[in-house]
Amino acid sequence: MKINGKTRLFGIIGDPVDHSLSPIMHNAAFEHLGINGVYIPMQPDNLTEGVRGLRSLGFVGVSVTVPFKVAVMELLDEIDPVALKIGAVNTLIFSRKEAATPMCRGVNTDWVGSNRALAEVIRLSGSTALILGAGGAARAVGFGLVEAGAQVLVWNRSPEKGQTLAAQLDGTFVSADILPSVRADILVNTTSVGMAPHEQEMPISPELLARFSVVMDIVYVPLETRLLREARARGCQTIDGLQMLLYQGAEQFTLWTGQKAPHAVMRQALIKALTTKRTI
Ligand code: ATR
Hints:
alpha/beta, binds 2'-monophosphoadenosine-5'-diphosphate, six-stranded mixed sheet, 12 strands, Rossmann fold
């Protein structure tokens, strides 16, 4: 990579941010396509000043991760309607137009990533999906499914949070006693259950997995979680946690550069990074 006066600036803001795989994924894509761009991790000590700095320094696009996805919204000029519904922004797009100060638009590509990963294996319109969890990731997955015309069921360890999300999605809350009798086309785990070092844990009992056609996990360490292994053994199609990460990043890449993202190159870079860390 050659950095010169024409290098376009991209990056990610988060706290912490050093664990993020996004720099690896985006820089691999720039390199593969010969784009003169660089994507760097940044940890602002003050979000408002940080976003002002990004504008002033001429950044083209920036990802936003925990804990800034909600707080960043009040610093933007424009917010995409789905991001408003989800209540979180994970992507900033700066555009100069005529104004001296670039305008900053916020969008959410997490739901696009989840929909694309699922739509590769199942038609979403008219389908039914059970979401495990009701946090930030569940919101993105849930609103994405609703956008695509699916019916959503929500289970959550803390029932009140699950009930609130189910109501916002015009869906149904699934209590622990009903869970064993639920059937759906799709199951998505958005909780951290099963993540290393607790690889043996599962968010749902394995005997229930045959009730779903497709099972997606957002956990990607390990890449094949016990949930996915048990689901595959029961004939379900499975989608690993890197797919949502990959496709949300691919959507950002296209929004920022106008080019189709090199999916295979980006996924390979992610897998290499995880393998090098000996975490999958
Ligand atoms: P994220 O942005 O990754 O979704 P989050 O907003 O903190 O993170 O949400 C975490 C989700 O995982 C929540 O639904 C949480 O359940 P609670 O609302 O009951 O806290 C769920 N979760 C985390 N650890 C869990 C566990 N051990 N068992 C079941 N659910 C768990």
